[in-house]
Write a structure and sequence with these properties.
- The chain is built from ten helices and four strands.
- By secondary structure, it is mainly alpha-helical.
- The strands form two sheets. Strands 1-2 form a two-stranded antiparallel ribbon. Strands 3-4 form a two-stranded antiparallel sheet.
- β1 and β2 form a beta hairpin.
- α2 runs antiparallel to α5, α2 crosses α7 and α8 packs across α9.
- It is globular, with a radius of gyration of 18 Å.
């Protein structure tokens, strides 16, 4: 006999919509959750996988009390260098977090509270993303750490319809990977179908 877990959904995780990101930010600001706000903002700007985002150290994004505008990073999974921007909003949240947490240049940007000299764990990061979704009334099973990587990429594509731009931002070697990643063909087909009156 085979049992199927109907509550757990695997597969591609949904990106957050722009208005959902703003609602998460507002909640975190009200709660004064500086670490979570900095994590949210940097995760969106960087478009990095959790395996690249969590090990970042203060010196990777700043120097002499100044947060960089752009960062170059070699992805662990692909060994391909990507560049990402750090927007003014993210710079401000990172600076507040670094100051309030008294982090030094070689400290992890998001240090674990339980394990000294370690960044927050993947499971804790996933828990936070799922909680952010749940707090918005969304199904947390549809969201995960990859939702953060997909969010800005999806927004950039929606605004520009330029798949090559998104490919560069994500560090994909093949445009086919980016198309599949964003679900572009299906989404565009559905939009065209919806706008066609028969």
């Amino acid at each position: 006999m085979v049992f199927i877990n109907k509550t757990k959904q695997s597969g591609v995780k949904k990106p957050f919509r722009l208005e959902e990101i703003w609602r998460i930010r507002t909640r975190l600001e009200i709660e004064n959750s500086l670490m979570q706000l900095a994590l949210l903002n940097l995760a969106i700007d960087s478009k990095l996988r959790a395996s690249d985002l969590l090990p970042l150290r203060v010196c990777d994004v700043s120097s002499q009390d100044r947060i960089f505008n752009r960062v170059k990073h070699i992805q662990q999974k692909t060994d391909i260098e990507v560049q990402f921007e750090i927007t003014t909003r993210t710079q401000q949240s990172l600076m507040k977090w670094i100051l309030i947490a008294s982090l030094n240049a070689n400290d992890f940007l998001f240090p674990s509270q339980r394990c000294k000299q370690q960044p927050i764990s993947y499971s804790y990061y996933r828990y936070l993303v799922r909680r952010w979704a749940s707090n918005l009334g969304l199904d947390p099973n549809l969201y995960g750490t990859h939702s953060m990587r997909r969010t800005k990429a999806t927004l950039v594509y929606a605004k520009t319809k330029n798949i090559r731009v998104v490919q560069l931002l994500l560090g994909h070697t093949k445009v086919d990977n980016t198309i599949r990643y964003l679900g572009v063909e299906l989404e565009d087909a559905l939009l065209l179908s919806e706008s066609t009156d028969c």
